[in-house]
Amino acid sequence: MARSIPAEYESRSLRVTLTSFLWRQAKVMGGLLLLGVLGLAVAALSTWNVLDPSYSNATSREPSNILGSAGAYFADLMMQFFGLGAVLALLPVFSWSLMMVFNVPVYRLLKRALAWFGGSVLSAAALSCFQAPATWPIPNGLGGVFGDLILKFPALFIGSYPQGLTAGFIGTLCAAPALGLLAFAANLIVTSEPEFVQQPGKPEMPVKIVRQQPVMEDDEEESESPFSYVAGYATHAWYSVQARLRRLTGKPARKPVRHDFDEPYDLNDEEFGLMHASAAEGRSGGRAEPSLFGDAEKPMSPLRRIISAPSMNPDFDDDDDEPPFDTERSRPAGILPDEEDDDDLDNWQVKPEVRAPQRVAMTQRPANPPMSRATPQPQQVSQAVRPRPAPIAERFVAKAGHDGFDLPPLDLLAEPKNIAKDASLSADALEQNARILEGVLDDFGVKGNIIHVRPGPVVTLYELEPAPGIKSSRVIGLADDIARSMSAIAARVAVVPGRNAIGIELPNKSREMVFLREMFAARDFDTSKAKLAVALGKTIGGEPVIADLAKMPHLLVAGTTGSGKSVAINTMILSLLYRMTPEQCRLIMIDPKMLELSVYDGIPHLLSPVVTDPKKAVVALKWTVREMEERYKKMSKIGVRNIDGFNARVSQALDKGEQITRTVQTGFDRQTGEAIYESEEFDLQPIPYIVVIIDEMADLMMVAGKDIEGAVQRLAQMARAAGIHVIMATQRPSVDVITGTIKANFPTRISFQVTSKIDSRTILGEQGAEQLLGMGDMLYMAGGGRIQRVHGPFVSDLEVEDVVAFLKTQGTPQYLDAITADDDDEDGDGDGRGPAGTSNLSDSEDPYDQAVAVVLRDGKASTSYIQRRLGIGYNRAASIIERMEKEGIVGPANHAGKREILVPTEEDILAR
Q: Record's Pfam families (predicted)?
């Protein structure tokens, strides 16, 4: 069945062909122009006369140079500076012009230009070692100014310019590198790409992955000798002249062209693979321009089908059962991971249209390949088809919260891009890397076998099963040497928990970016039963990591500047905002740097504006401690153990329309001696979670270290059951910031890239964070002490601003002034006004008047009631109540904490 050529593919092929043709013609014209300039330079040098007008000779005589004054000036400059070496300096230019005319590629142009100048100077120095004849017309030697300048260096040691045998010896020393540099500049000496060296005693590597040049030319030309260049130039010129004559005269060629497509042809793996490597990747090659689809009517052999150009249709799905690599090459049984990892590899290998072009060549071919090689029978490889994920728009719908509050939709976040899988993660490439890694470990005296390879979006994990007697600490200490030997940026080595294996993590050549939108669209996040679900990122294998902040219960985040710490804080905040309404979760943000968290100012979830003053941060943390204590009092009164039980009890009572009461004993009757019981009623509402986010702990410790550490310690020890959780971040992971007390109360920690092993031990208790790659690469230590490598998602500032703008449309924040209000913990001034805050209230009568009005209107007088109704701190509410007691408005508190109102209330006035 014939295949139709897509219009996009046809136009692209025409554009590439036309561009290639114009580029070749431009190179030919440039080569001819350079050859003409070279001819003029040779003519100027051959007719040089020292008496002609030049920079070194001012005269009015007419120049005898064939090119006139310009030729005289040019020839004089060349002879004065290079002497007879000017002739040798023109030889590389002649070679360049020929290569441009005949379209021969020249690589490393900068190095060859430097070699051209260095070879010219050294050749001038070699010529200066010879004695100039008496007829030499210029005062310098045969090598000109540069030659004499070079010879001044040996003259400093021997006292005079070299002569005799010394001059001959120095001239030989200069002539040898001069000829080598000029030959390299003329492209007569070609250096090839370094290849893998086969380790003795190791199994041979089946595949060698070679980096492809940007333009695919005939790579075999680099290994040809200078004599083959000359023969090639002559042959190419002869055939070009013949072809042009035939086109001009209209005569056909002597022999007709044979079309042997019906006959079977030999498939040479090396030549055929190199010729069609670009076609196999959906790209047009540099010089070879084959047909797009060949003869569509002829059935293609399996190998032909493997290397054919893929469809450019984005909806094209290759359902061939054949593996994309040569199936006849044996693969060690244990080199690939489990079945799910095999599925990952198979899914990554099929998408040639988006993969960077790679050139695959066999390292060793049999001398006489069997006849069945041309039509091999593909092996049956069981490939489990991974179910395709549903579109994000179908899997995530914005949920409606309480009181009409809508959660942010996923459309506000950037969509994940189509990621081209790294070609170095193919089965053969991973197998080759495993064999090389075994050889590297063997060089350092570590015996063992790579039993599993687990590729991921950022790094690949190689599981090493060490030989008996090999200590894990010995292999872990070789992390830097392994990274150097494998040409990797960094390598992390750690023991795989629960297995007799050591994990070696090496970064991939191309890094895959993790997007926050795909994390939120994942089923693990959407269906998570966690109270405070936080999307941390992906594991090495690509699985999403969803943590529960309520179970942590507090989180310590540390890392250097630029390691991805601030982005991780944003992802945690957005994780809470995408699942929780303001009635369910409230936030207190402390940002001494005044830049990272200020964008969240004004969202309904905030209890107070973003705190940027370190002194106010101390006040906010102390208020959080008091709020924790107040919550514990409420929970103890109704007999629950945590915030979930409290909210469930309160919600149940509200749904039934009941009021929570408690019977308490207030004393004994003096006459009868019986106990007196009173019923205490609770007007309670569900309380939200509170998450305190501290972006930079180091700045707070510098201002008020003891107060901050004490408040954080109390919250870390007791605030879990009260529903208060702390996320603390710092970019200076030193012992004076992350103290032993803080580490003991923060069992869950995240470390981004740090500068030293000491910082890694300070955060996690072990090394490894210094080997991270940055940009969100982290080590996540859960409460049990197990460390897991996670690649954090990326979220831009624009996405954060869009989410904040959406949340601001849902409502305004209800701030509590008491969070950042200054409160004094000192005693009163002796006037009987009571504890802290009384002197401040005497200056401002508004809170007191409001409290009196509330008490007279509602008929209730207690510290917690005043605090809740006015939204003030506990200390200020207690001071107001004590002032009311002093002024005779309320009586003293009884055993239940209730106070009798001594003045008439509004109900009493209305009753009268």
A: FtsK_4TM, FtsK_alpha, FtsK_gamma, FtsK_SpoIIIE
Indicate the pLDDT class of residue 366, thresholds 50, 70 and 90.
Answer: very low
Residue from 775, 769, 770 nearest 788 by CA: 769
> 565 among the known binding-site residues?
yes
Long-range contacts from 769-773, C-beta under 8 angstroms, 24+ separation: 769/559, 771/479, 771/483, 771/490, 771/491, 771/492, 772/490, 772/492, 772/563, 773/458, 773/459, 773/489, 773/490, 773/507, 773/511
Count of Cβ atoms closer than 10 Å to residue 202 Cβ: 12
Burial class (CB in 10 A: 0-12, 13-18, 19+), 773: buried
Task: List, as one string, the DSSP characters of 692-721.
Answer: EEES-HHHHHHHHHHHHHHHHHHHHHH-TT
Rounded Cα distance between 486 and 482, Å, is 6
Please state the pTM of the whole predicted model.
Answer: 0.50
Helices (H) and strands (E) counted in the chain, each on its own, are 30, 19
Is 730 annotated as contributing to ligand binding? no
Q: What does DSSP say about strands 689-694 and 724-730: parallel, antiparallel, or unpaired?
A: parallel
561 labeled part of a ligand binding site: yes
Top CATH class of 552-643+688-808 equals alpha beta
Identify the residue with better confidence: 642 or 199: 642
Average pLDDT over residues 209-221: 37
- Fold adopted by 823-911: Arc Repressor Mutant, subunit A (1.10.10)
**What is the band of 360 on the pLDDT scale with cuts at 50, 70, 90?**
very low
Residue 424 is classified by DSSP as G
Give the single-character DSSP code of 794. B
Residue 255 labeled ligand binder: no
Least trusted range by pLDDT, from 108-112, 404-408, 499-503, 630-634: 108-112
Characterize the bridge pairing of strands 555-558 and 207-210.
unpaired
- DSSP secondary structure string, 609-652? SPB--HHHHHHHHHHHHHHHHHHHHHHHHHT-SSHHHHHHHHHH
Percentages of the chain per state (helix, strand, coil), in multiples of 5: 45, 10, 45
Burial of 187 (0-12, 13-18, 19+ CB in 10 A): buried
Q: Do the domains 823-911 and 552-643+688-808 match in fold? A: no
Residue 563 labelled as part of a binding site:
yes
According to the annotation, is 294 in a ligand binding site? no
DSSP 204-239: PPSEEEEPPPSS---GGGGG--HHHHHHHHHHHHHH
Q: Which of 125-129, 237-241, 616-620, 891-895 has the highest mean pLDDT?
A: 616-620
Domains of the chain: which residue ranges?
7-185, 552-643+688-808, 823-911
Tens digit of pLDDT for each residue in 583-630?
999 999 999 888 889 999 999 999 999 999 888 898 999 999 999 999
- 3-state SS string for 867-908: HHHHCCCHHHHHHHHHHHHHCCCEEEECCCCCEEECCCCHHH
Residue 567 pLDDT > 90, yes or no? yes
Planar angle of CA 470, 473, 479, nearest 5 degrees: 105
What would the pLDDT profile of 662-690 be if each residue is shown by its tens digit? 777 777 777 787 887 777 777 678 899 99
